[in-house]
């Protein structure tokens, strides 16, 4: 059984990891391109991306509901119920994406000022935010369609679409920034067009499956209630996390431009280390959701145990590689010695905290697949706002440990959440309660 489960996990995880790597590669290439514009542009994009992480949190929450419910109905062989959820989820993604986009366009500069944008970077950040945030409906749809397809066990199609989207993104960014001389706004336009193309490709792929979107399918109140009960806590969890990140960024700005630029660059390059972990988490959620629908308790426990082990291995390996190749990678972004000296300190802390980070991500995916989105919400809220933010302020600013204090706070936060999530998993699900 273990051998078959291992094959199932990696069959789903590898394409998802490749997809995540490709998506992150776009951010990496964008970072390199924007770094050529100047340090002001890097800071502007860093600010906007911290806000975009909040938007993404909302879209991912809808995707979590889709993955949990669709995979569960597929496991129970209730395709009609899965089709109803697909229609409801896609409509929800469109409505929320439009609302967020309009809010961004109307309050563009006010939002940026609120999160700490200085006059020096406000114009650049505003132009970038207008495109990537104002037209975020395409990002919302793209996220949800990918989640739906992956919940069926098809992780290859989203991966292939990511290849096309990434290629379009890079080509369009270069065209708008350097050929049309549109600066940072060109990057936003290129990213938005690429997302639109991805939406069309994924929707076309969905229409070829048993879960094809059909207007005539009626949405039941029970479906809406199920989506609502999963989406709100998941959205709250992501918002608490990303909203906290925005607040942490505000604290980092107080540490000086060098620290903020170093942390922005580190977040860009370190995002690659999370890709295998997120791939495994997606595989875990899909398989556990299907096993729950089929009522296979033993399989759920086996999947969780194996995926935890692989998650820890992947995170340690990825951070070791980052430590070994840190200097040449950082030099692609900046030749400033202080930037590298700060980043390498943080990378060492990241390596030490790798196991708890891996467990936190996998435990969260497991709970959400089992239909519990409230516990991750509680763990993240307390961890972010009463552990990470307070420790970042105390260690980073008061004790003047700067980037060391920032990443120590993050490690301690993940340790707290891992302990709490493990406790609830054992208490609510793994003591003959599945």
Number of helices: 17
Low-confidence stretches: none
Shape: globular
* Biggest β-sheet strands, sense, barrel: none
SSE series:
HHHHHHHHHHHHHHHHH
How many β-strand runs?
0
Query: Which percent band covers the strand fraction?
Result: under 5%
Straight-line N-to-C gap: 19 Å
Number of domains: 1
Mean pLDDT: 87
Q: Percent helix among the residues?
A: over 70%
SS class: mainly alpha
Please give the radius of gyration in angstroms: 21 Å
Structure description:
The chain is mainly alpha-helical and 434 residues long. It has one domain. It contains 17 helices and no strands. Helix 1 packs antiparallel against helix 2. It is globular, with a radius of gyration of 21 Å.
Give the tags.
single chain; 434 residues; mainly alpha; 17 helices; 86% helix; 0% strand
Question: What's the layout of helices and strands?
Answer:
Elements: H1 2-37, H2 39-75, H3 79-106, H4 108-114, H5 119-134, H6 137-151, H7 156-179, H8 184-206, H9 221-253, H10 257-270, H11 275-294, H12 297-324, H13 326-333, H14 337-352, H15 354-369, H16 374-398, H17 403-428
Helix pairs in contact: 1-2, 1-7, 1-11, 1-12, 2-3, 2-5, 2-6, 2-9, 2-10, 2-11, 3-5, 3-6, 4-5, 5-8, 6-8, 7-8, 9-16, 10-14, 11-12, 11-15, 12-14, 12-15, 13-14, 14-17, 15-17, 16-17
Concise overview:
By secondary structure, the protein is mainly α.
């Amino acid at each position: 059984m273990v051998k078959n489960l291992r094959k199932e996990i990696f069959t789903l995880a590898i394409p998802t990891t490749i997809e995540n790597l490709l998506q992150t590669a776009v951010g990496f290439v964008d970072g390199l391109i924007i770094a050529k514009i100047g340090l002001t542009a890097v800071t502007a994009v860093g600010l906007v991306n911290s806000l975009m992480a909040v938007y993404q949190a909302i879209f991912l929450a809808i995707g979590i509901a889709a993955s949990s419910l669709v995979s569960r109905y597929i496991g129970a062989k209730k395709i009609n119920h899965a089709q109803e959820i697909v229609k409801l989820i896609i409509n929800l993604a469109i409505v929320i994406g439009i609302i967020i986009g309009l809010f961004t366009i109307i309050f563009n500069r006010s939002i940026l000022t609120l999160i700490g944008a200085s006059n020096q970077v406000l114009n650049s950040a505003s132009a970038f935010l207008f495109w990537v945030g104002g037209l975020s409906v395409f990002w919302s749809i793209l996220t949800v369609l990918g989640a739906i397809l992956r919940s069926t066990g098809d992780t290859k199609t989203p991966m292939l679409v990511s290849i096309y989207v990434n290629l379009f993104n890079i080509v369009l960014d270069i065209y708008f920034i350097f050929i049309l001389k549109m600066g940072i706004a060109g990057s936003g336009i290129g990213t938005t067009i690429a997302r639109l193309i991805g939406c069309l490709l994924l929707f076309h792929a969905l229409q070829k499956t048993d879960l094809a979107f059909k207007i005539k399918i009626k949405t039941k109140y029970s479906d809406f209630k199920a989506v609502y009960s999963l989406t709100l806590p998941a959205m709250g969890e992501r918002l608490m996390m990303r909203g906290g990140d925005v607040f942490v960024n505000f604290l980092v700005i107080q540490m000086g431009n060098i620290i903020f630029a170093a942390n922005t660059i580190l977040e860009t390059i370190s995002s690659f280390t999370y890709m295998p972990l997120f791939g495994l988490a997606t595989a875990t959620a899909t398989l556990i959701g299907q096993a729950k629908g089929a009522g296979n308790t033993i399989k759920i426990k086996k999947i969780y145990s194996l995926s935890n082990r692989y998650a820890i291995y992947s995170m340690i390996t990825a951070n070791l590689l980052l430590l070994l190749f840190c200097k040449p990678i950082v030099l692609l972004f900046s030749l400033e010695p202080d930037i590298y000296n700060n980043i390498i300190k943080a990378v060492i802390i990241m390596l030490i905290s790798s196991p708890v980070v891996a467990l936190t991500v996998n435990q969260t995916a497991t709970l959400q697949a089992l239909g519990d989105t409230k516990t991750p919400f509680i763990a993240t809220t307390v961890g972010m706002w009463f552990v990470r933010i307070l420790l970042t302020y105390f260690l980073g600013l008061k004790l003047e440990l700067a980037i060391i204090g920032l990443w120590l706070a993050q490690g301690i936060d993940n340790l707290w959440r891992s302990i709490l999530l493990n406790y609830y998993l054992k208490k609510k699900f793994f003591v003959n309660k599945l």
